[in-house]
């Protein structure tokens, strides 16, 4: 879908191999603006999760007593709430970010670098925010202005207002001037205060990042560490782990078994490079597994992508109005070919279902071709020429009846509606197919090959269905006089299956400036046809239910 892919992120280096192998994209690391001086401490491993959390609380209590700000990262909302309860029991003030109150949490996380602040966040909340040591003076000033009763709209920049400032009501301009004046007064005060606090925080070692568990991906761990030590600031980070952690249980190695077997108290931490490397290898294993899953999904997506290209290209051509009549005749030819193929697949002409073909042709347009005419054909090619000539002739009569400009508008709207409706149904069917395609492996079949084969067959059915629906719609649409210059697809009227043998009553000839489609006759709409109301559903699933 995209001619060129590129991007920028601070954590792509660990995925460099996958980006190159899958997308042929090279990862180019850019040096930091200032030298990174953050200290990344070795992991501490405990035997149980309870012992780990007790140690985390003790560490937080000591650093809070000193005044050092701490950002705690958890892997889930449940873990953050569990830690929050322990901190409350110890009477340690803190903020919890669970990505539930986005506006408030965005303001809280910007102040996570203030003196004595403790902020507990999941991997959903707060990542990517620039945490300033000592606090963010802009955010503090805005909070105070709002507490004093000023409206949030009065703090918006001029470009964010719905209209130009001079066009706003006088009362709003007066209120905004007062709020802006107060904001700048508070901003000057907080700039000085945050500068003093920032120096105090740096003296304590900067922002301390504490991770309560390793994630499956090293990229997320690096993202958490990266909240500290930004722009050359001091900082420190450390992960607390336990043998009860999910990553440890799923990918336990010999090194971890060695730790488990040692006769150590539960509350005593183990700090060993061998264990840390084993954890990193476990993370690498998970990353490779997840990478293979993404690679496999991409192979399945390529099938849908090729189909999507065909549909989108056809829609673009219709929207741009490029030779709609040629597209209509192509649909007509596809519909005729599909009908003949369905009824005359046998090599011997005696086995052709000419009666069934004649009856089905009559549902598409009021044809005069009888079964005897079809039986007299020596080949399917001769039969195709006969049917196509009759269909093209009736189509030309419809164009003369409605007028060329109206016919083009009919073609455009009908094509777009049918393509959109059929494409939505096709996507649902493809999703249903993909859900169970892996079971084909039980029958010694490659699920990917089966997906490609059946997807191709279903797409062919889709294209035939689009062509047939288009022909049915256009051949039975009615045009009436109306003073309104607009024309809407919701007024398409399609004759019932019982009356398809009768030619629709000719309507008055009109030009494009004074023609619309007649109101739909709900009772005469075939149950499997698209509902005339424009919902995109079949009639039997929409207004037909009431009948």
From TrEMBL:
Entry GO terms, CC: cell envelope Sec protein transport complex; cytosol; plasma membrane
Pfam families reported for this sequence: P-loop_SecA, SEC-C, SecA_SW
Region (Disordered): 483-547
MF terms in GO: ATP binding; metal ion binding
Source organism per UniProt: freshwater metagenome
PROSITE patterns per UniProt: SECA, SECA_MOTOR_DEAD
Bias (Polar residues) ranges: 483-497
Domain SecA family profile: 1-271
Alphabetical list of CDD domains matching this protein: SF2_C_secA
Cofactor: Zn(2+)
Alphabetical GO biological process terms: intracellular protein transport; protein import; protein targeting; protein transport by the Sec complex
Basic residues bias: start-end ranges: 537-547
Primary site of residence: membrane
Lineage, top ranks: unclassified sequences, metagenomes, ecological metagenomes
Keywords: ATP-binding, Cytoplasm, Membrane, Metal-binding, Nucleotide-binding, Protein transport, Translocase, Translocation, Transport, Zinc
The name this protein goes by in its record: Unannotated protein
Family assignment from sequence similarity: Belongs to the SecA family.
Places the protein is found: Membrane
Membrane topology: Peripheral membrane protein
InterPro entries in the cross-refs: P-loop_NTPase, SEC_C_motif, SecA, SecA_CS, SecA_motor_DEAD, SecA_SF2_C, SecA_Wing/Scaffold, SecA_Wing/Scaffold_sf
């Amino acid at each position: 879908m995209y001619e060129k892919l590129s991007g920028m992120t601070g954590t792509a280096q660990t995925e460099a191999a996958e980006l190159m192998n899958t997308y042929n994209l090279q990862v180019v690391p850019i040096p930091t603006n200032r030298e990174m001086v953050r200290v990344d401490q070795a992991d501490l491993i405990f035997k149980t999760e309870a012992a780990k959390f007790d140690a985390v609380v003790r560490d937080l209590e000591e650093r809070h007593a000193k005044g050092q700000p701490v950002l705690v990262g958890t892997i889930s909302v449940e873990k953050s709430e569990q830690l929050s309860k322990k901190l409350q029991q110890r009477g340690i003030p803190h903020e919890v970010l669970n990505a539930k109150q986005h506006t408030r949490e965005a303001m809280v996380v910007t102040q996570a670098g203030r003196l004595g602040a403790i902020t507990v966040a999941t991997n959903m909340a707060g990542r990517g925010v620039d945490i300033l040591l000592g606090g963010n003076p802009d955010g503090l000033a805005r909070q105070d202005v709002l507490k004093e009763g000023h409206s949030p709209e009065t703090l918006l920049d001029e470009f964010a207002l719905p209209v130009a400032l001079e066009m706003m009501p006088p009362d709003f301009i007066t209120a905004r001037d007062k709020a802006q004046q107060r904001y700048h007064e508070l901003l000057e005060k907080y700039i000085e205060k945050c500068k003093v606090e920032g120096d105090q925080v740096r003296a304590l070692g900067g922002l301390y990042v504490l991770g309560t568990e390793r994630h499956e991906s090293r990229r997320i761990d690096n993202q958490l560490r990266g909240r500290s030590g930004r722009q050359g600031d001091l900082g420190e980070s450390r992960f607390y782990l336990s043998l009860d952690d999910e990553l440890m249980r799923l990918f336990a190695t010999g090194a971890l078994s060695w730790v488990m077997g040692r006769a150590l108290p539960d509350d005593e931490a183990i700090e060993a490079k061998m264990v840390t490397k084993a954890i990193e290898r476990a993370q690498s294993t998970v990353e490779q597994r997840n990478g293979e899953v993404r690679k496999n999904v991409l192979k399945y997506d390529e099938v849908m992508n090729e189909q999507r290209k065909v549909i989108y290209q056809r829609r673009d051509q219709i929207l741009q109005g490029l030779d709609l009549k040629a597209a209509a005749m192509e649909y007509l030819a596809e519909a005729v070919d599909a009908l003949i193929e369905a009824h005359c697949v046998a090599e011997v002409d005696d086995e052709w279902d000419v009666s069934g073909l004649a009856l089905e042709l009559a549902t598409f347009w009021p044809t005069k071709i009888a079964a005897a005419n079809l039986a007299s054909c020596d080949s399917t090619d001769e039969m195709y020429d006969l049917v196509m000539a009759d269909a093209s002739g009736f189509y030309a009569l419809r164009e003369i009846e409605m007028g060329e400009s109206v016919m083009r508008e009919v073609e455009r709207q009908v094509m777009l509606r049918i393509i959109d409706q059929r494409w939505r149904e096709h996507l649902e069917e493809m999703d249903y197919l993909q859900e169970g395609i892996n079971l084909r492996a039980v029958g010694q079949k490659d699920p990917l090959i089966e997906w490609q084969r059946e997807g191709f067959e279903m797409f062919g059915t889709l294209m035939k269905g689009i062509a047939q629906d288009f022909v049915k719609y256009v051949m039975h649409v009615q045009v009436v006089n109306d003073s309104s210059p607009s024309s809407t697809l919701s007024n398409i009227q399609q004759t019932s299956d019982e009356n398809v043998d009768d030619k629709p009553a000719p309507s008055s000839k009109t030009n494009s400036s004074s023609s619309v489609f007649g109101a739909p006759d709900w009772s005469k709409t075939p149950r499997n046809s698209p509902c005339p109301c424009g919902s995109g559903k079949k009639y039997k699933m929409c207004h037909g239910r009431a009948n």
